[in-house]
Fold each of these.
Amino acid sequence: MEQEEEMTALRDLLADGIAGTASVIVGHPFDTIKVRLQTSAPSSSSSSWGVATPKFGGFSSLFRGMGAPLSAAAVIHALICSAFGESSRVWDEYFSVEPPPPPGLSFIR
């Protein structure tokens, strides 16, 4: 039983670290576009970011500067979500209650 609990905690750490990494990989380019639109000239249209992307270094420029947020998000998500998972398992173990019978069927024995 103890080995199964260790594997569950390890699985939580790994899965939540991957989730944090994925959130940054998906969200960082959109944040970069948002910042470029906010700092551009007010007369430019919102669709001009696609035309201006080559000026900033092409498609790969959307991922520039992702190292620090990537490493931080992986660690933070892994720790927070693993702590939540472990506390949920402890709660369920110590405070488990039998579910009540479905309504209307309690008279049948």
Amino acid sequence: KMADEKKKSVRLWFAVKRLDLSEDSPFRPPLEVYIPKDAESHTVRTILWEKLELNQPDLVVKLRNNRGSLIPINREIPPNSKHRPYLLEVCRQYQHVSAEPRSIIMPSYSHTIRTMLQQLGGRLERLEQIAPELRNRRNARLDAEMEELEQKLRFLNTRLQEAERYQWQGMFKKHPLW
């Protein structure tokens, strides 16, 4: 029966480092663990916790490959050898990071809002200063466009007057070459 279970499972090797006991704890000799091929993630974690004899709920288990990268603890862990075991680190929650309570108010939030209001106030002041000048600019632009249109009208009028002097003399004076 034990041989059947080994055939349906994957043999993994883990070098365990208990950081929850002390920061400079050495690695223990590689631990051999059999994980069923069809096991779910929580089952794999339960098997590891039982093998490591962990009974404190606030412990965190980190699994690293031989390059030191974190890998997920699930049934997809590829098999390894005793000479290249996975590194299994056990530590307490917030052991390496100081926990702070969550809050919406950040220290720089009020500063950011204050600067945005100051910028908006500055923009409004500039618009108020420029407001009389804007009317003058608009009038100057309209005057320039009106002058340009008047020049075009004068040109068209002269062309129309020139065209009125000509009269229709019938067909072509010369025969076309077609």
